[in-house]
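Hi R.,

Here's the chain you asked about this morning:
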Amino acid sequence: MPSLMPGRPGTKEAFGISLIREDLRVSIPPRALAHYGLQADGEVVLTTTHRGEGGFALLVPDRARATVFAVYLAQLTQMEKIYWFSEKAYTLVAQKEGRLILTPDILQAFHLGMGARLMVVKSTTVAMSFTPVEIWRAKFAQRGLCEAIENMALLEEF
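And the predicted structure, written out as tokens:
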């Protein structure tokens, strides 16, 4: 998994760029699947990352049940239904062959659209984030992290 600023501690590690395809599917980069111990098929939880920003965090259900997320996960009973807790969206979605299966309602809840390019980043041991490339580019530019912006262009696209 490449660091966006090699040799600099604490910088973001990215698995790649995933696109929201016309069929509303989004690939989970193979290294992300392996890193988080996810099977190619199964269920995962998506939740809001930062309020007002597009994108989502993918929670690994088995790991998330041992955290503060457990109280929310216990209430997710229906696939693809959007649940709101403390102004954050949560939804249980299927993944098949390493691809998330989204719906128009899910895209709307996470402020995303078809064709969006999402940088997949290692967040915690429980979650990875899928955040629009433009958001990362703006954050890095604001902090003067030009090397990270340049290295984003080298990431593999899925």
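The chain has a mean pLDDT of 88.

Let me know if you need anything else.
M.
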